[in-house]
Amino acid sequence: MRPFRAPLGFLAALLIVLAACAHYPLNRALDPVPAAPSYEFPREANGTNTNGLFVCLVFSGGGTRAAALSYGVLERLRATPILWEGRDKSLLDEVDCISSVSGGSFTSAYYGLFPDKTFTDFRAGFLETDVEGALMTRVLSPSNWFRLASPTFSRIDLAAEYYGESLFAGKTFRDLGAGGRRPFIILNATNMATGERFEFTQPEFNVLGSDLGPYPVARAVAASSAFPFLLSPVSLKNHPAPPEVKFSREMRLAEGDFYDNRRRYQWAVNRTRYGDAVAYPYLHLMDGGLADNIGLRPIEDAFRRGFIRSLMNGGEIQKLVFIIVNARTEGQDGISRQEKAPGLKSVAMKTATVAMDNYSFDTIELIKELRDQRRQTQGVLRAFREKCPGAGAQPRLASEVEPFVVNIDFAAIKDPERRRYFLGLPTSFKLSREQVEKLISVGGELLAADPEFQELMGQIGKPGR
């Protein structure tokens, strides 16, 4: 009996059908009655955490380099004993929020999900793993060729699957926010349509009429680290929902702020467009570094009008600490040394990174200016009260807050040769064990050497264990 041989046309049709079946996971529409609390900043502190000492960490982009440097800072915070409100604890116990982009999002998301396992498993499970090689193996596997041929499944979806299986154990934002625990993790990507930052929090997902709770953390991390040209965007569905569900009262009021507050106006306009789910049925996300490679903008927003401002206005914060972990590089400028114009590849890479680095510098300086403004205003009001104690209604702030901005940057390394080493490390997801070890070590070293960190420790620190 002759073996059956399927016609070529049949095989081609079968391949098309198989490819068409592949689709990335869609974000769900909001339920009329939520199954669990939404993923928003928990106002009430719990455990050993307090609102009085409010610490926010910021993890920049930069592949494994950024992830390892951030991990080194977490380790040092864990080993830093403090005395606060009569209790002995580590400074890590007082971390309230972490905002991150790209490579830094791997560290922040893992710590948010697995705070205890971070210091036993994360190093071997991610930092010392050849992530690039693992992703390439999946791309080259014949079992994935059919799926990659689908217009609704791409390399970024394979990457998200790998992160979910190998690192994040399939956890969702419902797991990340379980019990209202802190720190509150803000994973940031970039909206390709507007160039604006997009954060994976429920208020942002409300704009899409979507429930963030069941969404995989791995996909958010994939979006945050989807560097252009190398990976494709992560896509979200814009679900129809009533305006009162999609847009907060603040957002609707901000639409009238064109002349009074252009920052707030632009923020509102770029979101209210998604009220029309027919005209804008999807949102596509790329690397968060394209909008803010430091990850500091969400913290600035929270300071101006968000959860940090609310706590300050309520008189709950005494010391406000921003620790910025900037794993920037300073690559060699080969372009300026040659007469020939740069090629397409060089232009593409520079386009994606040069403006990003300049914007990062301005963002850090902006948060320092906000710190100085707060200190100056409080100083003026304090002097007025001392000079005119008998005055009637005296101008005052809700509470005096002592702000600190700690900046972790390779440029602070004094030894020129050592500084060049760290500034020259590649932006990749494959570093040697020796490189990872040095990054972890220098993270703690730079934290301890920062002048504002030393000032803070002079007030709340205890002798080392």
What does this molecule look like?
The chain has 465 residues and is an alpha/beta fold. The protein is globular. α7 (155-166) packs across α10 and α15 (297-304) runs parallel beside α16 (307-313). It is built from 20 helices and 10 strands. A hairpin with a 5-residue loop joins β5 and β6 (197-199).
Structural class: alpha/beta
Biggest sheet details: 8 strands, mixed
Which H/E pattern describes the elements?
A: HEHEEEHHHHHHEEHHEHHHEHHHEHEHHH
Mean of the pLDDT scores? 86
* CA radius of gyration: 24 Å
Could you tell me the number of beta strands?
10
Salient structural properties:
single chain; 465 residues; alpha/beta; eight-stranded mixed beta sheet; two-stranded antiparallel ribbon; 10 strands; 46% helix; globular
Indicate the topology.
Layout: H1 8-21, E1 53-59, H2 63-78, E2 81-84, E3 87-90, E4 95-101, H3 103-113, H4 118-127, H5 131-140, H6 142-148, H7 155-166, H8 173-176, E5 184-191, E6 197-199, H9 202-206, H10 217-224, E7 234-237, H11 243-246, H12 249-254, H13 262-272, E8 282-287, H14 289-292, H15 297-304, H16 307-313, E9 319-326, H17 344-387, E10 402-409, H18 416-423, H19 433-449, H20 451-460
Parallel strand pairs: 1-4, 1-9, 4-5, 9-10
Antiparallel strand pairs: 2-3, 5-6, 5-8, 7-8
Helix pairs in contact: 1-6, 2-3, 2-4, 2-19, 5-7, 7-10, 15-16
Task: Characterize this entry briefly.
The protein has helices at 8-21, 63-78, 103-113, 118-127, 131-140, 142-148, 155-166, 173-176, 202-206, 217-224, 243-246, 249-254, 262-272, 289-292, 297-304, 307-313, 344-387, 416-423, 433-449, 451-460; strands at residues 53-59, 81-84, 87-90, 95-101, 184-191, 197-199, 234-237, 282-287, 319-326, 402-409. The protein is of the alpha/beta class. The radius of gyration is 24 Å and the shape is globular.
